[in-house]
UniProtKB/TrEMBL annotation:
SMART domains: HTH_XRE (SM00530). Keywords: DNA-binding, Transcription, Transcription regulation. This is XRE family transcriptional regulator. It comes from Fictibacillus terranigra. It holds the Pfam family Cupin_2. Residues 11-65 form the HTH cro/C1-type domain.
Length: 182
């Protein structure tokens, strides 16, 4: 089963758990009814931004669309994980360890290609992001405050504000992102 089908099946199940129509889900998420329907049928390749809108509107984690059950031991090769991209393909998010029951975090490998400028909408109150920059450089703006990171530098911030990731360097910026949900 491909990633679009997994996302579609999970979205449909979550909407069903809430007893929401497509109209109700569209109003809560800010994503159009036709787009939600296409995603549920596995006919659309949703962007990172679209999945974040849906997750925030449904009150679930981003990774809850990606995996249903977690084994007791899971080994992940980043190269084997299919990334989810933003509209222009410069912000790639690979879910390494999706959120699990009784755990309050999820872990991603993120790559920002040169020229990337990605704006993330605020997460739910209390959510924090931890960024561990492995390679390259990153400009980060959180609630109108700017931060410059280079390889080996890390940052934690309250993610319930708009935050902007930028790669103004010549090479890719690669990082590990941990999202904590209180």
């Amino acid at each position: 089963m491909n990633l679009n089908e997994v996302i579609g099946r999970r979205l449909k199940a979550m909407r069903g758990q809430k007893n929401w129509s497509l109209d109700q889900a569209a109003k809560a998420t800010g994503v159009s009814k036709p787009m939600l329907s296409q995603i549920e049928r596995g006919e659309s390749n949703p962007t990172v931004s679209t999945l974040w809108k849906i997750a925030n509107g449904l009150g679930v984690s981003f990774s809850s669309f990606l995996e249903e059950n977690q084994p007791a031991i899971k080994q992940v090769n980043t190269a084997d994980v299919e990334p989810i991209e933003n509209q222009d393909g410069t912000f790639l998010v690979s879910p390494l360890f999706p959120i699990e029951p009784k755990k309050s975090f999820e872990i991603y490998a993120v790559e920002l290609l040169p020229g990337c400028h990605y704006t993330s909408e605020p997460h739910a109150p209390g959510v924090e992001e931890y960024l561990l920059l492995q390679e390259g450089s990153l400009s980060l703006t959180v609630h109108r405050e700017d931060f410059q990171l280079s390889s080996g530098q890390n940052i934690r911030f309250a993610a319930d504000y708009v935050h902007v990731y930028k790669n103004q360097g010549r090479g890719p910026a690669k990082l590990i992102m941990i999202i904590y949900y209180p």
